[in-house]
Every structure is written in structure tokens, then in C-alpha cells.
Amino acid sequence: MDCYTANWNPLGDSAFYRKYELYSMDWDLKEELRDCLVAAAPYGGPIALLRNPGRKEKPASARPVLEIYSASGVPLASLLWKSGPMVSLGWSAEEELLCVQEDGVVLVYGLHGDFRRHFSMGNEVLQNRVLDARIFHTEFGSGVAILTGAHRFTLSANVGDLKLRRMPEVPGLQSAPSCWTTVCQDRVAHILLAVGPDLYLLDHAACSAVIPPGLAPGVSSFLQMAVSFTYRHLALFTDTGYIWMGTASLKEKLCEFNCNIRAPPKQMVWCSRPRSKERAVVVAWERRLMVVGDTPEGIQFVLDEDSYLVPELDGVRIFSRSTHEFLHEVPVASEEIFKIASMAPGALLLEAQKEYEKESQKADEYLREIQELGQLPQAVQQCIEAAGHEHWPDMQKSLLRAASFGKCFLDRFPPDSFVRMCQDLRVLNAIRDYHIGIPLTYSQYKQLTIQVLLDRLVLRRLYPLAIQICEYLRLPEVQGVSRILAHWACYKVQQKDVSDEDVARAINQKLGDTPGVSYSDIAARAYGCGRTELAIKLLEYEPRSGEQVPLLLKMKRSKLALSKAIESGDTDLVFTVLLHLKNELNRGDFFMTLRNQPMALSLYRQFCKHQELETLKDLYNQDDNHQELGSFHIRASYAAEERIEGRVAALQMAADAFYKAKNEFAAKATEDQMRLLRLQRRLEDELGGRFLDLSLHDTVTTLILSGQNKRAEQLARDFRIPDKRLWWLKLTALADLEDWEELEKFSKSKKSPIGYLPFVEICMKQHNKYEAKKYASRVGPEQKVKALLLVGDVAQAADVAIEHRNEAEMSLVLSHCTGATDGATADKIQRARAQAQKK
Fold first, then answer.
1. pLDDT tens-digit series, residues 7-46
2. Rounded to whole angstroms, how far apart are CA atoms 440 and 450?
3. 38/90 Cα distance (integer angstroms)
């Protein structure tokens, strides 16, 4: 344990800092880091170098080279820089490289050097050029801050949703500030800059002078400033050699440290972790590194090579030409276990486990000591937690073995934390491998989340490792394996050296029917890469027509989209394609396409019936569908035309169409309707009133009600209305008028073709029994009983029924006999029935 703590350096009495090697860099840099623009992404991210920017001693024809490496120094991309002069590099939260040019244009590249997009920081920046730039991260995304040649600041807090903000002018600023940085307060990005001994804070509305509380006197200039990883703390390096540390709001001072060096540092960054005991700032000069905090003495390291600092959530990464190291505060659990002469429960448990492996009785003594104090659960938890913060697998295993040993003596210790730590460490050790090169710490891993880590593995095209992690952690397929396979397929379609057939087959063999994978998304990526035929082949594997059709339309494969929509049976989808085809094709080609698809043609007709009647007529004409064309003209005559001439003309076209369709009945009926319309118009002109659009029967009835009996009879003869129907119409109309005299004359005009029972029924319906009795006597024998019953003459009805000796009629009369008044009649019928039965 003493040897293990050899690289621990105390900072004051409460905290230790240690520096250990992550990788031995093998990237064969030909130039010093100080001769390059350098950008390293946090959370173990990649490193970008732009070699020899603006080097005067280089030939004019030599272009800078932009190179991207993993954190372990493995080359990821290299490209010749052919754009404008570069001012600054930086990585976004999505690990996209932002390259800020002198003209204010920001070029965005992927991890593998693929160009993504570009945007400009505005005309003012273009005119005044860029002096300096910063890439910063907020909760909204990654931002860019620009200092122009006019000494004005412009920033955008989120490059994904670009909104440029021109910051207020600093009064009297004639030259570039000695140092500046971005500060995020209350969810808003601000600019903090130093001009001589003064500090100014710029927000969107104003420029405010600020004074750090408790700053040592004699400061004439601020040489460097640094904001902590979480934007909560600020450090200021002054020309007096003092480092002021406080809150980023400049309202509270934490401490002040005199480093006795007045030369401006190359870099200054914060080095702290969540719940840190002693917050510290790391300051780097050419060959010296100093860790300072609220202590009289700092920690000093000698730098053998030119180095670069990368602030992290829980420490600082330091890389040079040959090594990549990590400097951080020793976590509490590790400190308590490994500190010299520690009697913490975790330290005793680790010793007990080691003695147990030696088969020494001291193991029992250590274990009893822990148990007597009741600290065994705490000891197990300490070992588990300390294992998470260790970088080397051997030490992780040693601590986890100790935790497992201690768990054996506990009855109810929940295993979740132990199992989860084992899983997390396996994942961390896998991604820390030199060939992967993502040196995440346990705290960074938990902050980043497994989903983001998987995204970063996918971004590096490490699909097998990402899938292994998903399977090991048993993540749901939609969040894990399926999502990664979909990304792999999208990358696969970009390999243009492989044929479409081979790519489609390989993707289908790998993906199959994996849930959560959308072939349409992969096909869309293929189409975006200019591989239309590959996209069509991939769409064949897409089971959802609703996903196939929109992309086929986008690819201008409308006829194929129509076939797919029809196969789906989704009418809404078919209508979508039809409307797209209608706008895309000329009228003739569109109709020909419909003729080859009967279902689509039928649906389009339904659409036209409600929306485009003229198009419907054209469809019927093209198909020589005279029957439907005739029906169309019939509907049009009533729906569109108000003038009688127009309606008659439409009906004439309908009649002609019916003749062509060899539908004689429909043609004759249409001609009759034309005659009726002309007659109704003439009647309206001569008699007044409303006749148009009445049916033939209603027209006759209206004439009778108007007293135009002769005209009604003539109309009946003209349209060959049968006598029976005419008598019914006239009978009903005269009864409605209560013209009983005319009705009686009508009944005597000739023998009634409908008999006289209807007269009785109509009169009784009008509650006129007197008139009804006149006709009851004229009713034929077979309906006599019914007529007499209608007028209420039960006794006479009984006599007729007995005379006819008709059992049904006698039963009918009996059903109408009520009370004492009809008792004699009922007896009479019963006697007649009895006599009939005897015979």
C-alpha cells in the first residue's frame, strides 16, 4: 500500500492529488504541440491538430494538415486544409469538430474528417475578421464566441440552432483584451474580459464593470482566466503572480495563491471533482505544471515535453508527444483505504482478504475487528466504490475480491451495487483499451450515460464493441442492438465500392426482422448518397407500406409507390400517391396510369365525385363508360344548372349517353323527364304556383288540387298513367280538398277500376261517415262486410256475412262486436255458425 500511494501528492491537509499514465502515445508527431492549433474533446474525446497554421518559414505552397486522433493517439482522419486561414478549433458536445476561420465561417467536420456543414458568424465578423474564438458548452448545446478585429464580441449559444448575438461594446477598448472567456449564468452565456486592471462582464444588454472580492492590491493586468467545467467557479492569474479563485458570479472569493511566477502561463484550468474536498487550479508553463488551491504550498510537476491540458468533470488530462496522463483528486473511498496507516473499514477488509489468500489467521483478526465495530457493510461499500475509481484492472480486481469476501459474512447485503460495479468496470476497461482510446473515468461514465457512450462508439464505427456492450448489459433491443445495427447499415450504404445487390443482401442478412430497425431510414440514407437503386432494393425489406411510399415518391418512383400503396390496402396512402401523380404527370399519362390500376381508378373516381366533377367526366369519356357518363349528366342537371334550358340540355346529353350504352329504359325515362320539365315550366307560366322538380304523380295531384281536372287527365294520357293510378290520385286529392260533390260525380263518371272500397276508406280517413255510407252500398260482395264495418254498421255486416256463409267474415264481424249493444248481433252470428257446423 505504501508503494501504491507513492504518486500521491498532498494539497494541504485534506486532499491528495495523483497523476497516472493513460496511454503511451504513438502518434509520431513531426512538430511540437506549440506549433499546432490543438483541440481535445472532453469525456475522453478525440484530439484534433492543425499543423503549421501561418508558419512563416514554411513554403507558400505548403498547406496545413488537419489530423484527428483518438485519445490514445490512434489516427482517425487526416485531410489537407484547403479552406481559409484557421483561427481556432473546438469540439462540440456531439463530437463534431468546429473550425473557425478568419473570415467568420465555421466549418463542421465529423470524427473521421467528413465535412458536415458550415455557417457564418455574420457580416460584421466577415468585414472585421476574427482575432480569437472560443468553443464552449452549455446545457443548450455547443456555442461559439468570436472576438473581431473591431474588438467586438459575437456569440451563438447553440450552433445547432444558430442565433447570433452581438454583445455590447466595451467603453474605451482600443486593443484586444489581455484575456477573456465565456461564463454561463442563469442559463445565459456571458463574456468576461480583462482590460488592464479592469474586468468587464458582457451580457445581451449591457457591459458591466466587475471587481473580484478580496483581490490582492497592485494588480495592473490579468494574464489568464479559467472557468470550471461546470461554470460555477472562476480563476484569475494576475501580473503579480497571484491566482485569485472564487465563484463565477464574482460575488464570493474562495482563496488566493501566490505562485511566485509572473510569466503568463500557457494554460490554466480547474481540476476538481463533484463533492471535492479541495478545489484546485492547474497552471502550465513551458516546462512546469503547478496544482494550487487554498493552501500555502502547491504541487509542482516537471514537464519533459510540450504539453496540453484538457479539463474534465473530475480532473485534467495532460497529453504530450509521448504520453497521455490524468491528474485528479484522489477520491474519498480510495484515500480511506490506501492512506498510510489507515484503519478505515475498507482498508481492514482489503488486508483481511489478502491475508485470507495467504491462509493466515490474521484474516480472522481483521474481520473480527470490523464486525465488532459493526462496519462490515460500510467496508464492503468502500471497496466497491474505490474499485470504480481505479484505472488499473489488477487493483479493481483486488478491491472487488475484498468486497466479495466481506459480503460472505453479511446476511442481507444487497448485491445490486456489486454486480452493477462489475458490469460498469468491464465496459470501462473495454473502451479504455489502446485501440479504442476513450479513457473515461467512472464519474464521467455515469455523467455521460450508457446511451451516449454507445452513440460515441457508433460514431467511431466500433459497431461490434457497441453490440457486445448492449448484449452484456442486456439493454432493450430498440435502445441497444437494433439502434446500432441501423447505424451500421446507414454506414454500409456509403461504401460505394460494393455493388447495390451485395450491400442490400448483407444488410438484410445482418438485420433480418430485428425489431426497431427501419429499412426506410436506411434506404433514405442510401438515396441521400446517390444510390437510388440500392434504396429501392432496401425498401423491398420494409414491411410498412406507410414508410415505403413517401420515400418512393421522393425518389420520383411514383408508379412503384402507387403499386405499394395499393398492396397495403390503405386508401389514405393511395390517395396521397394519386394526388402526387396528378401533379407530376400530364393529364393523359395520369389517366393511362389509372387504367392499369383498377383499384386506384375506383378510388380516384370516388374522390372526383366529391371534389372534381369535370375530371370525373373526362375519365368516363376516356373509358367510353356511357352508362356512368349518362348518370353523371343526370346528376349535373340537378346539381349545377338552375336554368331550365341548361337542365334539359344536360338531360339530353344523358339520354344520348344511355342510348350509346344501349340502356333503352334509362334513355326513355330521361326523355320523359325532359318532357315533364318543359310541361312543368309551361304550367308555372300559365297557372302560377310551383311545378318544377315535382314528380309526375305530384304534378297530377297539384293540378287536381288546383281545380285543373282536365289538364290532369290530359297529363295522365300524355304520360300513359294507368287508370287505376289516376283514380287513386284523383280520389286522394278530392278528399284532401273535401270536395265531396266533385268526388261523387267522379265516382259516377264511369265504373271505378279500383272498386269503391277505397272511396269508403278515404272518406273515413277524413272522418266523413255520411259520405262513406254512400259508397259502402256500391262496394262489391267480396268487400261488402269490410266496407260496412268501416262505416260502423255491424248488424248489416253480420247479415251479409251470414248470407255469404263465410267463416272468415263472421270472425271479422265478431271481433268488432263490443259490449251489450252488439250482443244480439254476436249471438246471431254464433247461432249461424252452429247451424253451419250441424250441416
1. 999 998 889 999 999 999 988 887 788 889 999 999 999 9
2. 12
3. 8
